[in-house]
Amino acid sequence: MMAVAAAVTLLLFFASCMGASVFCTGAPAAGFEDVPTVPFDEGFTPLFGESNLGLSGDGTVRVTLDRHTGSGFISKHYFHHGLFSADVRLPAGHTAGVVVAFYLSNGDVFDDTHDELDFEFLGNRAGHRWRMQTNVYGNGSTARGREERYLMPFDPSAAKHRFSVLWSSDAVVFFVDGTPVREVQRRAGAGMGGDYPSKPMAVYVTIWDGSTWATENGKYTVDYRHGPFTAEFSGLVLRGCPADATGDIRQLHRATSVHRCAARERELTTAEYAVMTARKRAAMRRWRWKQTLYTVCYDTDRYPEALPECDVNAVERQMFERWGESKVAFRSRQSRVETPLAPPLVSMNMMQAD
Fold this sequence. Notes:
Blueprint: H1 2-18, H2 40-43, E1 44-48, E2 53-55, E3 61-65, E4 71-75, E5 79-89, E6 98-105, E7 116-122, E8 131-137, E9 148-151, E10 161-167, E11 171-176, E12 179-185, E13 202-209, E14 229-242, H3 255-260, H4 262-269, H5 278-291, E15 292-295, H6 314-318, H7 323-335
Antiparallel strand pairs: 1-4, 2-3, 3-14, 4-13, 5-10, 5-14, 6-7, 6-13, 7-8, 8-9, 9-15, 10-11, 11-12
GO biological process, one term: cell wall biogenesis
Family: Belongs to the glycosyl hydrolase 16 family.
Keywords: Apoplast, Cell wall, Cell wall biogenesis/degradation, Disulfide bond, Glycoprotein, Glycosidase, Hydrolase, Secreted, Signal, Transferase
């Protein structure tokens, strides 16, 4: 009886937002509008495929994938924590197999113990919707993947939308248009603990061919007859404490270097956009209820016991096998627009995108 009551309460809680004709964000994007941006030439440098990189007069950076190469750029500095953000517009049309990524990593320095925080945007067939994936890895913990995958509540090729990662020594929060959509905490015993990303990371933007896995586990590959594929990035934010450029990056996560950035981190974590209020967490839960297609926390095939940082809701976990399909179908009936159903969740092969 208690489980039934909990299910009814949970469904009623989200009914008003799910039935709305517009996306309900709940909490406003407080504080994000005041965060300063950085010009490309000041904060970034080309990474690869420089012939497929373009910079316009308004500061918009374009990364392109064609049959010859993808492209990407990287921040000039590594950072000890911070807020990292970009306004992103993705390619339109048939984009199956295309991967656009906005992420933090130190994999080029720490081969076996690298840290990584990802936004990955996974293309789809024409008329089907882009997927968004978030990943959290620390200290080389890729064998314990912490992926999540979502539908976005808008067409990311029609206009720019802001994607942000807030990374502190205690928590990682992913934001979409200022609304928190995922929070991962470090806390010992009930969090990631030693798997938490703790070493300085650089910021990357890339576009590349992910045909082997990106669209329905490789069923649909990049068709270059529909290319080239171009994503736009603007409003770039690097709000963090740069690692000491004169030191050995492999030693910069040690206590003395971290202490140098302590004041900057306090400023970061007390900013209005960083404080996770009850209202923001309610908005996050609404977003997740509507948009999540896959979460590692409910994948009992991979992890019979949930990872320690997972906030497991018993009702949601029981619904896991039909979770994504039931939500997409519900919205389709409301809008009278056919929406493609997600593949069966339990069988999804969540491969890491490097």
